[in-house]
Write a structure and sequence with these properties.
about 350 residues, alpha/beta, Udp-n-acetylmuramoylalanyl-d-glutamate--2,6- Diaminopimelate Ligase, Chain: A, domain 1, UDP N-Acetylglucosamine Acyltransferase, domain 1, 2 domains, 12-stranded mixed β-sheet, 10-stranded parallel β-sheet, 3 helices, flat, UDP-3-O-[(3R)-3-hydroxyacyl]-glucosamine N-acyltransferase activity, lipid biosynthesis
Amino acid sequence: MQFTAKEICTLLNGTLEGKPDVVVNKLAKIEEAGEGSLAFLSNPKYESFLYTTNASVVIVNDDLTLDKPIQSTLIRVPSAYSSFSVLLEMYNTLKLNKSGIEQPSFIHPDAKIGKNVYIGAFAYIGAGASVADNSKIYPHTFVGDNAHVGENSTLFSGVKIYHDCIVGNNVIIHSNTVIGSDGFGFAPQADGSYSKISQIGNVIIEDDVEIGANTCIDRATMGSTIIKKGVKLDNLIQIAHNAEIGSNTVVASQSGISGSTKIGENCIIGGQVGIVGHISVAKGSQVQAQSGINRPIADEGKKWGGSPAISYQNYMRSQVVIQRLPELERKVDELQRALEALK
């Protein structure tokens, strides 16, 4: 893929300084860029690299003032960071632009396949399943019986969508994620063993969700485990049966959300957070990494930290006290020795 500086400038509605016909064919960091590269500069910390870079084209902010001559062609825009993000998205879209059905793959005669769909080699599409228009099913992906994948969604290699689960429109699911595996349901028996409780529900993933690699979302015992619109899930997350994640909530890596817990909208859950089952977390909650939520959170828009979690302000105060414990212990020992001497 090759583009001229003029073509890129037109796309970004920017102002060009330098050679309009110079060609770029790759994106790079400004400090590492070579000839034929397109880079950007938005952080003043990296401004010195503008005068030494070998990038053919650099996107900069409108208000940048040059201190000395440069070799690169400049494209001036209101926000270099935002404009470069647009180019990254375009580049990624072009790179992943696949279509057609590769062989060998299996598509059940009863499955419904939309227009302009890509199905990679060794993919499996089960009976009654459907894949809507413009979606991409990468190699070694499994879409079970009666499962549905909406429009313009991407399932990367190794994703498993169990039977009856629903994936909405504009969803991205990264490799080796499992949607709809059985919830952790077992009934204790008189002899001390456990009897499996059949999990007959499903998982519903609404529109505009992105799920990282190696994440597992369990199907409901009955009803649905629900991931609402706009949710972003990191790699290596466990979401248990009948849980519900509110719209536009983000959850970082290695977090675990127990069964039947309801997370409100616009929450931020840090990495390695553990949340017990059958509680609700209010919308707008922010939870510090490695915290443990063991009770319901009713107050909206609050910050929490620690295990068990307390208000973030109190948690930070506690950390200060903890750091002073050795000193406090020494003082207590001194006072005890003084009291003994008085006796």
